[in-house]
Design goal:
The protein has helices at about 40-45, 70-85, 100-110, 130-140, 140-150, 170-175, 185-195, 195-205, 225-235, 255, 260-270; strands at about 1-5, 10-15, 25-30, 50-55, 90-95, 115-120, 210-215, 245. The protein is α/β, with parallel strands linked by helices. The protein has a single domain (about 1-270), classed as Rossmann fold. An 8-stranded mixed β-sheet has the order 1-2-4-3-5-6-7-8, with helices on both faces. Helix 3 (about 100-110) links the parallel strand 5 (about 90-95) and strand 6 (about 115-120). About 50% of the residues are buried.
């Protein structure tokens, strides 16, 4: 499904069902060098169980036109404009890695538009290693190799994505390879420069879920600790304490390595009182 956002076509996968904004809306925001397809299981399940789903391709990614947006703050503004274009008054935001920063910033900037926020494989600050940033600039295939090795706890087949000849490792590499040249560097630069995370966590006015991976080498669970503590501090003001799910034996690519565990966490979060 396409929407016009700032006069540019933006694609969103609806989970195989017609999009109906009168239903509870869940918006999925992918991470760096990815697109809507990383949410295949979660988006399709929710779309067939009472939710309206938009799994986005951010500008310059996947099927969306335009250039990648240079900052997390500007992507958050774009996301609010997409909600307007889709006729969505309020939505739950689910973001992975870079997308988690976008979801967090959007929830802080537009609290009336965000019902809940789920931060998957998040961290703040989300600094990119110098070697990886240099590879993204000078040798993109090398950068993709580094990301792929660091994003998985194993290259073996996992429960939830089994099958002869199937490899989540190869799948992720091919997904990244189909993004346009320069997208990776733009995404990493946006993550590296984002400095508003703690202020955004302090400003959250909705329930929050943290889904972290025990063996994440890209955004280690300890790197989300301060965000979690700031969200916990909101309980003193009568706001809900954050829900925290740490998935064992899993790397950064949670949607691929442990899709069922992530779906279970989202189902429980969405079923809880708002």
């Amino acid at each position: 499904m396409f929407f016009e956002v700032h006069a540019t076509p933006a694609y969103a996968y609806t989970g195989g069902r017609p999009f109906d904004p009168s239903r509870p809306v869940v918006v999925f925001v992918h991470g760096a060098e990815h697109d809507h397809s990383v949410w295949a299981l979660q988006s399709r399940y929710l779309a067939h169980h009472g939710f309206a789903v938009l799994a986005l391709d951010l500008p310059g990614h996947g099927r969306s036109a335009g250039n990648p947006i240079a900052s997390v703050e500007a992507i958050a503004d774009w996301l609010v404009a997409l909600l307007d274009a889709a006729g969505v008054a309020r939505a739950t935001l689910v973001g992975h890695s870079m997308g988690s920063l976008v979801a967090l910033e959007t929830a802080a900037r537009a609290p009336a538009r965000v019902e809940r926020v789920a931060l998957v494989a998040t961290a703040f600050p989300m600094k990119v290693a110098d070697a990886l940033l240099a590879a993204a600039r000078d040798d993109e295939p090398l950068a993709l190799d580094m990301i792929n090795f660091w994003s998985h706890s194993t290259i073996n087949a996992r429960p939830g994505t089994p099958g002869p000849g199937f490899s989540v490792f190869v799948q992720n590499r091919r997904l990244m390879e189909r993004q346009r040249p320069g997208v990776l560097l733009a995404d990493f630069a946006a993550c590296n420069a984002y400095a508003h995370g703690f202020a955004a966590a302090d400003a959250l006015a909705c329930p929050a879920l943290f889904v972290l991976a025990q063996r994440d080498s890209m955004t280690a669970p300890r790197q989300a600790r301060e965000l979690i503590e700031r969200c916990r501090a909101r309980a003193a003001a009568g706001l809900p304490a954050p829900a925290i799910v740490e998935i064992p034996d899993c790397g950064h690519a949670i949607m691929m390595e442990r899709p069922d565990a992530l779906l279970a966490a989202l189902r429980e979060f969405l079923a809880a009182p708002s």
